[in-house]
Amino acid sequence: MLKRMREDINAIFERDPAARSFWEVVFSYPGLHALWWHRLAHWCWTRRLKWIARFVSNLARWLTGIEIHPGAVIGRRFFIDHGFGVTIGETTVIGDDCTIYQGVTLGGTSWNPGKRHPTLENDVIVGAGAKVLGPFTVGNGARIGSNAVVVKEVPPGCTAVGVPAKLVKCKDGTPEDRRKETADRIGFSTYGVSQDMPDPVARGIDAMLDHIDSLERRQDELEKLTHRLSEQIDDRVTDQA
After folding, report:
1. Is the pLDDT assigned to residue 91 strictly greater than 80?
2. Which end of the chain is more exposed for a tag (fewer CB within 10 A), N or C?
3. Would you tell me how many other CB atoms lie within 10 Å of the CB of residue 44?
């Protein structure tokens, strides 16, 4: 237990440059508190003490502003940064080394019993305000951009942005490589997006504008060519006259 708690604290130091001291992290990070409360609630849930589990999770929600259902399965070194407004549903499964930010919902789209919530594999980042809805998998090393609404599977190593979310980038490599790249790219590591990941709708509009510009250039060239031919014909008619 103490080893897991130490892992949780070290994960915050690795991913949050604002963390300055051990005691600051222990007493001032609601995401860490919510995770520790969840471990207690999940322990009760798996031993059929479900009323106590729900009471503990509800108490944690009041104290931290983060709602994690006691049935959710969460891996090691999970980090909720800022955290307020985070909601994690009952059948959610979260792998190791995942990070999510404030306002994230890992929710369901059905009232039917059974698996209703997403599965996040290892090393996934979910940006602030994103909604991941449904019983599908977000693959290893995937990134979900801020305010994205994801309703279908995200392959490993891919980035999804927009409403509804579309894949804008996929890459290969080991989790270690992806973590290093994420650490080197300030902006993405904070909220799951970066300047070189444009919105897919904006990219589509840019493509149409480029196409229109190309057509206009070709039209100008045709008009100039037509004008020159017209002048040559006029000159020949004048010479013959």
Report:
1. yes
2. C
3. 18
